[in-house]
Design brief:
five-stranded mixed sheet, D-Maltodextrin-Binding Protein, domain 2, 14 helices, alpha/beta, globular, six-stranded mixed sheet, 11 strands, about 325 residues
Length: about 325
């Protein structure tokens, strides 16, 4: 009887230990940039609750926007000081240019086209870069909303850029501005409103969501949609070693939920754009969609060839084949 009782108690203790192990909460410290008002942030805010629910509380996402500076977050994931990040493409324009193919003028001119080409090709190409350069696994990707140009004076012709100091958010936009006689100027995200207000820059490139979120209407009244950098991407990536430590039964749950988050993010893109354009108008800003003929002038061969050449050179330096990627995207677009 004593032996039976000992075995029975041992079984209960073993069961309790197993249940505790199964219920153990894993926490990922995740970086992001607090681009208030953007669809990027609106999507990110839903992630902790959704992942907790999908994993029955076993995986906890802790979001930090100041733990590591935005541009340094991908490297922090690589070296393990951050578990994961919602990495913004422009941060990596120079060191991982392939991630920013959506910023090339005239190649991917709208989000629906980019979304259609994700799984036939772009997702895999981008995931390979994350794996090889950052020891990171990509679980989701997304885009910022409609890109716009904000200025104190109307800016509706190609000639209007000449001589202007333009805040840009990626290398391709900087190269394009050089071709039309502007002076591309780097300004940290958190300083772009006062930079425009004080004349440090004359023009700011950003998204319609962030334009609302950080209050541009208080310093400028003109918004023009030029389709420069039409597809500004972000990716949720997690350190590969951190991912490998996740229990096997959780991995498919996490992958599936992040894909649902991504799908909903893209599905909401058009409505988010429309809502924010109306919000800009209601705040007193004049919003103008630049005629396609003028955009075609901006994207003329003499302007964009140096942009592509510069991007190809960055890819050569990075060890990626930019020319092959552009060719493949052009081929896939013809099949749509």
């Amino acid at each position: 009887m004593s032996t039976f009782k000992n075995l029975f108690c041992a079984a209960i203790v073993s069961s309790m230990i197993g249940s505790t192990a199964l219920a153990e909460t894993i926490t990922w410290n995740v970086g992001y940039i607090n681009a208030a008002g953007s669809s990027y942030v609106e999507t990110i805010k839903t992630v902790p609750e959704r992942i907790s629910k999908a994993t029955n509380g076993r995986l906890k996402i802790e979001l930090y926007d100041t733990l590591v500076a935005g541009p340094d977050q991908p490297a922090a994931v690589r070296d393990g000081s951050l578990d994961a990040t919602f990495a913004v493409g422009p941060w990596l324009s120079a060191e991982a240019p392939l991630l920013n193919v959506g910023m090339l003028p005239g190649l991917l001119t709208d989000v629906p086209t980019y979304h259609k080409l994700l799984d036939p090709y772009i997702r895999g190409a981008v995931a390979k870069v994350w794996q090889e350069k950052y020891n990171a696994r990509q679980l989701a990707t997304g885009v910022f909303e409609l890109q716009c140009v904000i200025s104190k004076e109307p800016l509706l012709t190609v000639e209007g850029f000449k001589g202007k100091k333009v805040r840009v958010h990626n290398n391709s936009a900087a190269d394009l501005m050089l071709q039309v006689g502007a002076a591309p100027t780097a300004v940290p995200f958190g300083e772009i409103v006062p930079a425009l207000q004080r004349g440090i820059v004359d023009v700011v490139m950003t998204s319609v969501g962030t334009a609302n979120g950080i209050g541009f209407s208080s310093v400028a009244k003109n918004v023009s949609i030029w389709n420069i950098g039409a597809v500004i991407t972000w990716s949720f990536v997690v350190n590969e070693d951190v991912w490998n430590k996740l229990p096997a039964d959780l991995k498919p749950l996490v992958e599936q939920e992040f894909r649902k988050i991504e799908d909903e993010h893209f599905a909401n893109n058009a409505a988010f754009n429309a809502k924010n354009v109306e919000m800009l108008k209601k705040s007193g800003m004049d919003v103008t969609f630049v005629p396609q003929a003028e955009i075609d002038r901006l994207f003329s061969p003499e302007h964009i060839k140096p942009v592509y050449d510069s991007w190809y050179a960055l890819n050569d330096k990075s060890g990626t084949d930019g020319r092959a990627m552009v060719k493949k995207i052009q081929e896939l677009k013809k099949q749509l």
